[in-house]
Amino acid sequence: MSTPSSAALLQLHGVSRRLGGRVIVDGVTFALDRGCVLGLLGVNGAGKSTTLRMIAGLLAPSAGKVLFDGHELHEEPALARRLGYLPETPPLYAELRVDEYLAFCTRLRGMRGADARKAVDRVLERCALGDMRRRLCGNLSKGFAQRVGIAQAIVHDPELIVLDEPASGLDPVQAASIRNLVSELGHDRAVILSTHLLHDVTACCARVAILHGGCLRYDGTLADLSATHGENLETVFLRIASADDARAAA
Questions:
Q1: Partner residues linked to 192 by β-bridges
Q2: With bands split at pLDDT 50, 70 and 90, how would you rate the model's confidence at 83?
Q3: Which one of 87, 175, 183, 237 has the lowest number of neighbouring Cβ atoms within 10 Å?
Q4: What band does 249 get if pLDDT is binned at 50, 70 and 90?
């Protein structure tokens, strides 16, 4: 498990979240800096989306702290403007054209005038959406809707990008395209990619954190899995999941 460093862009210190008396996320601690794509891996119900929502500033932890660039996110909510977030369902407005929607997103981020227009043009190119710019969001295929969702998350050039299942439900070609884009984004930014698909992690993440039952059960590089543990990601993931399921059934 990683120990948060004071130099890390993002730090989680013992972060927990309870709902209706039930623990959803339990004491999660890790750190992430620029230039790294972290795969947050877990089965459905592991606590991934709840963890991401706390990182994005949408939920306050019941306990623990989320630090962004050394500042507590939930005490300084304006910091959320410096990160980008894509929830599992892209927050699109069906009646707006793609370029209109992205222009609206720039205004939400405090951008105006030429800066906003340049940002929209830049992100349309980066996400390969140029041919879709005048298409209504409601008429997009699932693959292009996911791309627009990523575009709104990065239109303001954030330092941290948080993506919740961006390739879920896509065909193999669309999913590969999204993974390539995520890899590119991680060259100079910190990226968290939440998924339950092992291939998403092995394709574009250098590091993996495995959540199960709301707890962080593994945090390290993919190289460490084979070099140190002599196991691949699938073996470790299934071992963690099956051990917990066996305990629950006992």
A1: 38, 162
A2: very high
A3: 183
A4: very low
Interval 13-40: pLDDT, tens: 999 999 888 999 999 999 999 999 999 9
Which CATH topology does 10-249 take? Rossmann fold (3.40.50)
Residue ranges per structural domain of the chain = 10-249
Q: Is this structure's pTM higher than 0.85?
A: yes
Query: Residue 235 and residue 185: Cα distance in Å, rounded?
Result: 28
Distance CA 152, CA 143 (A): 15
- Per-residue pLDDT reduced to its tens digit, 88-140: 999 999 999 999 999 999 999 989 999 999 999 999 999 999 999 999 999 99
For tokens 């193999």, the residue is 172
